């Protein structure tokens, strides 16, 4: 009892170093910590590669940077449409899309889990993680009904607030082991990327025959649809509250 009172009365200044040590141990020893370090390393390597491309091939580098930014902000479909509209090849688009999605999962999933365990709280990501958690809780019954197959399908379909980040959070909430959760989520994501690549490549080939600007118009329309879906989702969520 005395030890419990001492722990509760211990100043915040003494608890903070202990929390930092616990976080450091988790980053080095836990599966989530290893994934986070791998994700950060991949992000650094990708950024470094883009920097090298910017020096030796600035035009292509600018297209790749634009595609990356579009994919992160608006999703994989918009990012891939951006790449096709600026004449990137299917191989490059698929590879870059897979890398972007992998980095997002390997960074955001460990941050979410560490935040869930109150080991690492990133303040500017708090609202985003709350939306992801709400979306995951709203859809976990579907995954629970169909199991791993449901998780794979959930990640594959391009509906609002689906995708690998929300999918791996659902897997975490359902108690899936991390080494089952992450491969299933990334597998579904890679299949989705290949499917979107085939679809968008066919659309690009057809619309490009009408006008050189048609592909860009298609990408803009896709982004408008995504933004409208986001606003509609927010409006429905507020009305429900």
Taking the sheet with the most strands, its summary is: none
- From the helix content, strand content and strand pairing, which structural class follows? mainly alpha
What's the β-strand tally? Answer: 0
- What is the residue-mean pLDDT, rounded to a whole number? 79
How many separate structural domains? 1
The helix content, as a percent range, equals: over 70%
Distance between the termini: 43 Å
DSSP strand (E) fraction? under 5%
Shape: globular
Ranges where pLDDT stays below 50 over 5 or more residues in a row are: 1-15
Total count of helical runs of at least 4 residues? 10
Q: H/E element string?
A: HHHHHHHHHH
Rg of Cα set: 21 Å
Textual characterization of the structure:
It is a single chain. With 241 residues, this protein is mostly helical. The chain is built from ten helices and no strands. The longest helix has 31 residues, at 126-156. The radius of gyration is 21 Å and the shape is globular. The protein starts with a helix and ends with a helix. Mean pLDDT is 79; it is low at 1-15.
């Amino acid at each position: 009892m005395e030890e419990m009172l001492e722990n509760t009365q211990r100043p915040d200044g003494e608890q903070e170093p202990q929390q930092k040590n616990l976080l450091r141990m988790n980053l080095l020893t836990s599966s989530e910590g290893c994934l986070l370090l791998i994700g950060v390393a991949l992000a650094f390597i990708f950024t470094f590669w883009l920097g090298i491309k910017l020096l030796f091939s600035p035009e292509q580098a600018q297209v790749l940077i634009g595609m990356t930014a579009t994919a992160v902000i608006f999703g994989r479909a918009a990012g891939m449409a951006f790449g096709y509209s600026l004449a990137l090849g299917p191989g490059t688009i698929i590879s870059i899309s897979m890398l972007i999605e992998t980095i997002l999962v390997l960074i955001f999933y460990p941050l979410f889990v560490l935040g869930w365990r109150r080991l690492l709280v990133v303040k500017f990501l708090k609202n985003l993680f709350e939306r992801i958690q709400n979306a995951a809780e709203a859809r976990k019954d579907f995954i629970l009904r169909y199991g791993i197959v449901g998780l794979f399908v959930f990640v594959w379909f391009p509906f609002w607030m689906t995708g690998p980040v929300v999918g791996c959070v659902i897997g975490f909430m359902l108690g899936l082991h991390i080494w089952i959760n992450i491969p299933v989520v990334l597998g579904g994501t890679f299949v989705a990327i290949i499917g979107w690549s085939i679809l968008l490549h066919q659309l690009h080939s057809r619309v490009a025959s009408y006008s050189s600007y048609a592909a860009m118009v298609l990408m803009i329309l896709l982004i408008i649809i995504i933004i409208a879906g986001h606003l509609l989702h927010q409006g429905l969520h507020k009305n429900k509250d």
